[in-house]
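TEACHING EXERCISE
Course module: macromolecular assemblies
Task: Read the component lines below, then compare them to the predicted structure of the full complex.
Student: A.B.
Group: 4
Components provided:
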Amino acid sequence: MHELSLIESMLGIIREERDKHGMTRIHRVHVVNGALSGAVSDALLFGWECLTQDGDMQGVKLEITDAPLLVVCGSCGREFTPEDAHCMACPACGEILGHEVKSGKELYIEEIEADIPD
Amino acid sequence: MGKTVTIVRNVMEANERRAAKLKDFFAERRILCLNIMSSPGAGKTSLLERTLADLKNEFRMAVIEGDLQTDNDARRVAATGAQAVQVNTEGGCHLDGSMIEDAIEVLNLDGVDILFIENVGNLVCPAEFNLGEDHKISLLSVTEGDDKPEKYPLMFHISSVMLLNKVDLLPYVDFNLETASAHARKLNKDIAIFPVACRTGEGLSAWYDWLRAARAAKR
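Instructor-supplied answer key:
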C-alpha cells in the first residue's frame, strides 16, 4: 500500500506544472499506469480521494489509463501481450521463459486539463 | 473546458533523482550496495547475520535496517560486530531514497566494502523504489509457496539474485524449486538462483561466491 506516497509525489509534480503554466483551476489529471508498475489503479484512486478531500486539489478529477504489459519473446523475438500473468506462453513459438519486458513498468502523468488565462 | 497540457512526467521522478545521487555516492566510494527484499519472516536478518559473521575477515560491511517499528533487527545485526543503523518507517511499507540519505549521514562508510540495505518486509512496494543500489536481492522462503515469483512479478523481474531460503524444510512443505525458479526466470532469464538454509548454512557458499564476484566488479 505505497499508493499514498505515489499520490503525494504526483501532487508535487502537479503543483510544479500548475505554477509553471500559470494554471488557475485544474479540472483533470490523466495518469498512465503500466500492468507491471506495482501500483494498483483502484488504490491510486482511493489515495487520490483521501489526499484531495480538501486543500488546493479539491475537486480535481484523476483519470487512469491502464497500460498493458508488452514483452519480447526470449526465444523467437515476437512481441506480445501475455493473456494473463500466470502462463506467458509466446503465441508464436510457445516459449514461456526469458521474455524481456518492453513496456508495462511505467507510471507517469500524461496530461493535465486546466484553465490557463491567455 | 480548460486547456490540456501534455506533461509526461514519471511519478517516481523525485525518488529516481535521489537514487541517481546515491548511486554516484556509492560509485565514488567503491561501495557495493545491495538492497535485500522479501516478505516478513523469510529470513533477511538471518541471512545478514550469517553473511556478516562468515565474511567478517574478508570484507568491511555495514547495514541499513528498514523496519516498521522496533530496533530488534539492528541489534541482531550489530551483534555480529558490523556497523548497523536502524531506519524506522513508522508504518511505511518501503524504504525510499531520502531514508537512505539520512542513514548514510550517520554511518561511517570509510573503508566499507559492502553496504546491505534490509528493506521492509513486503513483496510489493519496495520493488518500486530504487535506492541507488548496485543490485536488488530477493529472498523467498520455501514455506511461502513456489508461486510467489509468479504472483509478484516486478520484485523478481528487477532482482539480480533470488535466494530460496529454508531449504532444510523442503521435506515438510510442498515447494517445488523448479517451479519457483521457472517463474522467476520468465521475465528475468539471467537471475542467479541460490537455494540456501540460513539456519544450517547449507548453500551459502554459492551466495558468498556471488558476493565476492559482485564486490570485485565494483573495484
